[in-house]
Amino acid sequence: MPIGRLFSGSGREWATPSASRTTGPIEGRRRRFPWLRTRADKVPWIPIFIIVFLLLLPALLADVITVHDPLRGVLADRLTPPAWIEGGSWTYPLGTDKQGRDLLTRIIYGARISLAVASLTILVGASVGTTLGLLAGYFGGWIDRVVSWLIDTFLSLPIVLLALVIVAVIGPSFVTIVTIIAITMWAYFARQVRGDTLAAREAEYVARSKVAGSSAWRILLRHILPNIANTLIVLATLQVGVVILEESSLSFIGAGIPRPNPSWGVMVAGGRDQVLIAWWISLFPGLAILLVVLSLNLLGDWLRDFLDPKMRQRR
Amino acid sequence: MNGTADDGGGASVAGPVLEVKDLVTHLYTRWGITKAVDGVSLQLFPGEMLGIVGESGSGKSMLALSLVRLVPEPAGRILGGQVFLGGRDLLSLSEKQMRKIRGREVSMILQDPQQSLNPVYSVGNQIAEAIRLHDVAVSSREVLERSIAALHSVQVPAPERRLRSFPHQMSGGMKQRVVGAMAISCRPSVLIADEPTTALDVTIQAQYLRLLDEIRKQTSIAIILITHDFGVIAESCDRVAVMYAGRIVEQGPVSDIFDKPEHPYTQALLKARPRLARKAERLPSIEGQPPSLIDLPPGCSFAPRCPVALTSCENQYPPSFEVGDHHVAACWLVEEML
Predict the structure, then answer these.
(1) pTM
(2) ipTM of the complex
């Protein structure tokens, strides 16, 4: 997880969306890395382009845009280098692995796995986390104590260890990995939503709504949730990158997506032995992970500024 | 239900719309029990504006919140008394019944109306919510008409266009009016305004007070205006209740209180007002601090600061003595003079 966060700053900035453009750590980073700058008025087209063409489109259209089989290779063509290198051919633009499977095809199918894992875990995590966070933040008392304790507990779970144990017992599968990642994912959302709710609960418009006769549910769903939606969207975007990294890491150590499936993490792991003679097997899926996660972080960064109501007036 | 709002119209001889008897609200804090409201009784008549004045921490806001049963829980608790509205004791209702009363029969304008509007919804959307909250069956056409009427009654220009505005597109005074429109959109019989003008600048304050006055004349709504500013009281109220340390120490028609205040605290408060006629000398102030509401003295809570305190003042809290027409003061000195 921290690898992705390197590019989005200290990693905690999203928790307190900073509106300042003149001071603070974000500005410092902007000065040092001007090419990484995100500004509310500059739509980050490059990250969006990368996300669309490396993650979304491949995931949705994998069977339409590929000609090779992602699981079965042509052994005669094994270890073909990328097309632009001597010995390569445009039949396999990014080359093949040791079983003669086309790397590009597998990367495209890998996007499908990454996106599926990310959307499922974030859907589950965000729903559970938001619900618990809202309840804990608004009602306080024992609900808050229980939920806060759960958040702390689940955030301190060593996810890799947990995954290894679970996989050792019931074996690796798509469902297992989604469950493992979702188990900790909800806590990030719950922590964020609880804090935001605590602040929003004290807002005057909540008091006014109470005075006008609103029930607790109405206040939570109509007044508090829409007001914390901004940070939820930002958090969800940033967490997509986190999930992709987690899934890749777990797949890399064999505790994630089971072997023949083309997860990016599995592919990087698969090329490890040949990295000196066939570097492309590990490099291209690795690059895919890097570009997608970096783009997601930059997009999340921009969304945070863009959705900040204080920035809205300056546009 | 709707009858209660209409009955009051014009008839000032009718009984009170709101009657509070011996209301006691305590706050259970880390440092002890704060007697924020300690036996308050008052009556509110249809179409009148009652001012409640007092220092910060005198229990004014807690009194207001107690009336609609929104004392911050679990720290605050209403321990006793009755609040009669339309023949029912609000303190004995269930929370669900109480929700139907809030906004429909008793409305409230809070201290900071600038922040009282939800930034993510348009004005029309929020007024519509206030209406729909209590009238589930109304058609959207009727909601629109009533929203426009509500904005019209608080003198918002071009209400049709304002409905589409968002709070950040409006000035402070305008937001204030919108909050007022929401508060009266269900035609309540009582409106509690808790320092509604504190966050506004002085010219807008005066405008707003005039507006409240006009709403009262048009709708015969009874208004409780909570403030720490005697000037505001003088400008707009019929009667005034002076609060000190959780109790009402003096209550009566505004002119009586201003002309012949009987309670030493009221006298001191009135003396401490800045006035243009007076030259730039130091303003008189009241010696000492308001008592901590946690360990109140057994007798009159103003006794430690009172320039004319008697020994009896320190032993027993004085009952309310009638000193004039509807003018009562809780002070032993008054008894001496009677």
Answers:
(1) 0.79
(2) 0.80
